[in-house]
Amino acid sequence: MKHKPRDPLLERATELLLRLTDEPPSGDGVAPDLLRHAAEVCGGLAQALSLPPPYELDQDERGLIVVQLKRALRGAAFLRGGLTGAAADVLRDEVNAIQGEILDLLRRARPSPGGRP
């Protein structure tokens, strides 16, 4: 059975989660909240990206994608806010980049006022 390759954005979010687990930004370890927020990013992206592209879906189905992308966006916002100190700057930059890509996906998934994506 052939597996579909992972989306590059989901791959980056997963790598970030693993980095937080393996190399916490502070020597004291990583706060459980940071891991939960990073997992929300991954979970929301995994759910949203597993569905067909929004232009192939009706408005209700696009709503499912929007909900999951908002979940990922919320996780990214809380994660970025929880990263403190100079050691977290590189991680914060990566979260900002991921958050920007989630926003782009969200803009494409939302139906326009005229009813078209």
Can you describe this structure?
The chain is elongated and about 45 Å long. The mean pLDDT is 85. The chain has 117 residues and is an all-alpha fold. It is built from four helices and no strands. The longest helix is centred in the middle third of the chain and has 24 residues, at 59-82.
Question: Nutshell version of this structure?
Answer:
With about 120 residues, the protein is mainly α. The chain has four helices and no strands. It has helices at about 10-20, 30-50, 60-80, 90-110.
Number of domains: 1
What fraction of residues sit in β-strands?
under 5%
Number of helices: 4
Distance from N terminus to C terminus (CA atoms, Å) equals 33 Å
Low-confidence stretches: none
Provide mean pLDDT, rounded. Answer: 85
CATH superfamily: 23S rRNA-intervening sequence
Task: Please write out the topology.
Elements: H1 8-22, H2 32-49, H3 59-82, H4 89-109
Helix pairs in contact: 1-2, 1-4, 2-3, 3-4
Supply the key terms.
mainly alpha, de novo design (two linked rop proteins), 4 helices, elongated
